[in-house]
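User: Structure please.
Assistant: Input sequence and predicted structure:
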Amino acid sequence: MELELRHLKTIRAIAEAGSLTKAATALGLAQPALSAQLRRIERSLGGALFERGRSGVRATALGELVLDRARVVLPAVHELQEEAVRFARSREGGRQGFRLGGTHGPLLGGLVDRLAAAQPEANVATHTSWSEREIAAQAVDGRLDYALIGTCGESAPPEAGRLAWTEVARDPVFAMLPTGHPLAGREEVALEELAGEAWADVPGDGCFGDCFAAACVRAGFTPARVYETDTASCVHLVQVGRAVGLCRATFPATPGLVTRALAGTPLVWRHLLGWHPASPAAADAPSVITHVRRAHTEAARRSPSYARWLDAGGRAALRLPVAGQDSARAPAPPGREPRGRSGEPRAGGPPRGSGRPHGGGARHNAVQGAG
């Protein structure tokens, strides 16, 4: 019997599970079938790969040798497959267009508008999702050319070790209030002044919920009630006075509600553009970055409350990077992936979890008007 990739995957699964029973469950096999397969693999390799005991299985010296090779071969083959798929997809139609992925909001729409105007012959396709991880994964495997997402504060974007990311803009997070709210006439509202309010939010998969929870703790309260629903419903709940929400400062003017700056800018949202550095999209990334930044400038101008905040000197609160320090970050070499904490947000966000500033893997609540 010749050794195949599936055999290496089986050996790796057994080693990771620590027992044949657990490995069989993970592989979707009956344990007798897995035991029989392992015996065949061991015969082909000339010796036992695992020692069986009451506590499970442990790799033999031969098993460790095979596992060492498997840990090199399997990721390399997986990377080859991804690269081939990416190459094939990029060749479909001769790359006559742009495939954009992003969260819902003015930046994605502004980017589509600018690309369509600049290259009217090009096909511009979009994919939207509340999940930044989903969008980033599609950029990794070649289904999207660019991922336009956001992160809470200095949190690292998803797939930071595989995609090149650059920060294209940075916004404060504002509060959304119904027009009849007692604080609606103010230009700035302290977070603690909203301690007794209910909040509306949309789903997310990053750390914004934890970031918001931490900000509330620092302000001396924990939100009592959260309505989690789609963006349109969140806006409706604010309009009818059922809840308040959070939004990026570029959130467009909307009847029945106002957006107001939070005193001290306790939450900041970074807009990021990502692409795979080995994809054909990398060549067009500089021009796409320029289009996104101009779309953000236009969106900021369309938000009266944001324009007033900037004119009043709010820009300094964003801690904008020094010129030349916001260039694209390529993935780290193999074995040296960034150790940054993961997470991203989007719409109107109450807390989920302990209130730690950046809970790795915790659900986030997205900020309204994403993208």
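The first strand starts at residue 50 and ends at 53.
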